[in-house]
Amino acid sequence: xxxxxxINMFISGTTKxxxxxxxxxxxxxxxxxxxKKFEELGIDSVMIPxxxxxxxxxxxxxxxxxxxxxxxGVVTIPHxxxxxxxxxxxxxxxxxxxxxxxxxxxxxxxxxxxxxxxxGFVAGLKDYGHxxxxxxxxxxxxxGASRALAVELISEPIKSLNITNRSFEKAKKVVQxxxxxxxxxxxxxxxxxxxxYAEYDFVINATSLGMKSDDSLPFPIISLRPDCVVCDIIMxxxxxxxxxxxxxxxxxxxxxxxxLDYQVSFIADFIGAFKT
Length: 276
Ligand code: ATR
Hints:
276 residues; 6-stranded mixed beta sheet; 6-stranded parallel beta sheet
């Protein structure tokens, strides 16, 4: 791990600055990860945590626009939605979710934000060899995670994407939002009572069910085809009850942690972190 002493050795007047907005900031992992990479690649940059309470966020972001060597950064809890509102420009993930996990200060003073959860999820699926071409996909859940995944999955050459949710109105809203961001007629909301689980190549849990040990399964495993892939977005625990049940039935699974792991390089590209 990089030591404080090492960081001090390479910070100089030419050092470019990246931040991570958080509150509290003690738990953030991005500075360790990025600073290690800066050192490895010999890049004259540093990432520091910015612990800013929500009441000061707007002033903080506004004044940062004037810092010439500040390129941008990572955004985490609880600032993802509020920083999205302060952005002048949003990418597709940011538009679909109304939340950003990375921002960059562009040279013309524009603050550009985006959400990379969906991009990370799709990159993880592909890297694990799961082909998406002509596949039928079902997302269970209609919160921010569902929107993030839907906006990226729909731009892949899939056959169709259905969204279902306990509150059906929310599923319909997700579909409406995705259609406003991407021109598509491949996405539809489906009520639980009309779902035939055997139709799907991928079924994705995008609800919060699975975080607690006494949570029920978000959907039944029994009706899935043996060649279906069951995906979860829950990261803790890694092995949710859903994924354990799917594995016991001989069904392939895809873990929630991949979504996060695979988005780091996209965030780094977006904020220009590893450019020399
Ligand atoms: P996130 O932004 O992380 O996706 P969220 O916006 O709170 O989180 O969304 C949580 C999702 O889990 C919603 O789809 C929610 O369903 P409702 O919209 O009907 O509330 C779903 N969810 C949470 N608890 C659930 C439960 N007990 N049964 C079914 N769905 C549940």
